[in-house]
Amino acid sequence: MPEVMWIPVIYVQTVSIGKALFQLAPSLLLLGFLLWTTKKALSGGAGGIFGQKKKTFKKFNAEKNVKVNFADVAGCDEAKEEIMEFVKFLKNPAKYERLGAKIPRGAILSGPPGTGKTLLAKATAGEAGVPFYSVSGSEFVEMFVGVGASRVRDLFKTARENAPSIVFVDEIDAIGKSRGKGKGMGGNDERENTLNQLLVEMDGFSTSDHVVVLAGTNRADVLDSALLRPGRFDRKIYISNPELEGRKDIFGVHLKKIRLAPSCDLDDLKGRLSALTPGMSGADIANVCNEAALIAARHNEEYVRLHDFEQSIERVIAGLEKKTKLLSPDEKKVVAYHEAGHAICGWYLEYADPLLKVSIVPRGQGALGYAQYLPADIFLYTTQKMLDRMTMTLGGRVSEELHFNSVTSGASDDFEKVTGLAQRMVLQCGMSPKIGTISYTIDRGQDMTKPYSERTAKTIDSEIRRIVDECHERCKNLLIEKADQVELVAQELLTKEVITREDMIRLLGKRPFANRNDAFDKYLAGKDEKGED
Ligand SMILES: Nc1ncnc2c1ncn2[C@@H]1O[C@H](COP(=O)(O)OP(=O)(O)OP(=O)(O)O)[C@@H](O)[C@H]1O
Ligand SMILES: [Zn+2]
């Protein structure tokens, strides 16, 4: 509500101008109030018989002068880099238009709760120096018929009038769930109307409307595919929970507001605190800092000290353990050896995809750790390539077998992938000598009978099993041979939580297959080009 901002704006200015004006503040405040009420009455007057209240009551948040910028958002550099494109566009749309470039209309910011999605969206407005209009999807759900859609219309109208600007829809899953899902029981027509209006607004933009639409969600998986079409939210930016270094930087942001003893070594403190807070989100870290200050205040202390932080961390962890599962030290060890197994296999198998990053920070929705590979733009898989990939995928479980007495349920996803690949090799790709070049995966419509005899079924079964078992054996031999290397990587993961390709080179030396690294070098070169301006 822009009108409401009259008062604070006048007040702040007087403070900065000086003492003399400061004394005038009360009368200026009064003046501001008078102007505000007159303006309200005037715009209301044009609104029809119901007068002022009806027209000026807008239910979305407007911030014209956003104070937050990228420096306030830490530990998510990749997301910042991706969103930078919008900042550049909003700052200088003419430059893009002159060249005929079409700028993406919007982006979905997804990730676990409290990772700074809202903060990043707001900081984007702050960096670009444009107004920020926001609503929360969950507010629409309870609304009366027609209210949601008209509110969306108002929101976009205001954003257009004040362009360049940013619209942010938080919790977009509340209105943007796949249509049809949730109908019937608890089905919500108003939700659907609201979603439709949002789509209409986004489609109604012309390229000269300099409005960027951002949305936040921690359920990107349930979104209606209509939202993700080109010209709508055509970018997806993922923000994960921060790793060790990220947490250090986020503590850096929030410790600025805390009164620390002058003798306190800030770097040392950040290091300790980030080590004590694995699995915490940015919001949790903000919470830790605030709690620590409260504890210190309760004890009438002059400064906030390490032991206050330690107490507040315990408190926040206790609260979190109820809500989400944090890894125990034992579990963390299992995840570290599991991921190290994948990474070592990838490093020493010629046709495995180049590794970008391994992490043992839980990612939400079940994944306890992950290894990220360069997406291979290969369309033809040789037998060798498929076998290498399967061997690498088994690396997690095999490493668990080799280092612990019992195995965990953490590898079920891996098995699914491996079994799927083996099935394809046998049934579809003609890669099993016993089955030959026959495809058993042709779509036969309604015919549900098996296209092969019982005897062939047995052969298929044993062939799939043989292929998987051979990969398992090969993986085991490799990981036994490279036991020292697995140890190095696992230990590094346990201390740093994340390992990049550079770390792997430092620990293991260059990856042996020179020509196989080409794809990676090309990828990195491309990335640098993109990062420049
Ligand atoms: N990366 C970060 N850097 C600094 N502070 C952060 C970061 N992430 C979160 N915070 C702190 O946590 C607060 C809440 O974060 P924010 O609301 O942006 O999270 P969110 O991802 O939108 O959460 P939700 O999914 O619950 O809506 C922020 O205002 C900020 O104080
Ligand atoms: Zn795995």
Automatic annotation (TrEMBL):
InterPro entries: AAA+_ATPase (IPR003593), AAA_lid_3 (IPR041569), ATP-dep_Zn_Metalloprotease (IPR050928), ATPase_AAA_core (IPR003959), ATPase_AAA_CS (IPR003960), FtsH (IPR005936), P-loop_NTPase (IPR027417), Peptidase_M41 (IPR000642). GO terms for molecular function: ATP binding; ATP hydrolysis activity; ATP-dependent peptidase activity; membrane protein dislocase activity; metal ion binding; metalloendopeptidase activity. Keywords: ATP-binding, Hydrolase, Membrane, Metal-binding, Metalloprotease, Mitochondrion, Nucleotide-binding, Protease, Transmembrane, Transmembrane helix, Zinc. Transmembrane segments: none annotated. Its cofactor is Zn(2+). PROSITE patterns: AAA. GO terms for cellular component: m-AAA complex; mitochondrial inner boundary membrane. Pfam families: AAA, AAA_lid_3, Peptidase_M41. It catalyses: ATP + H2O = ADP + phosphate + H(+). One of its GO terms (biological process) is mitochondrial protein processing. It is a multi-pass membrane protein. Residues 103-243 form the AAA+ ATPase domain. It is found in: Mitochondrion membrane. It comes from the Eukaryota. HAMAP family: FtsH. Component of the 850 kDa m-AAA protease complex, a heterohexamer composed of YTA12/RCA1 and YTA10/AFG3. Associates with the prohibitin complex, composed of PHB1 and PHB2, inhibiting the activity of the m-AAA protease complex. Belongs to the AAA ATPase family. This is Unnamed protein product. It comes from Ambrosiozyma monospora. The lineage of its organism: Eukaryota, Fungi, Dikarya, Ascomycota, Saccharomycotina.
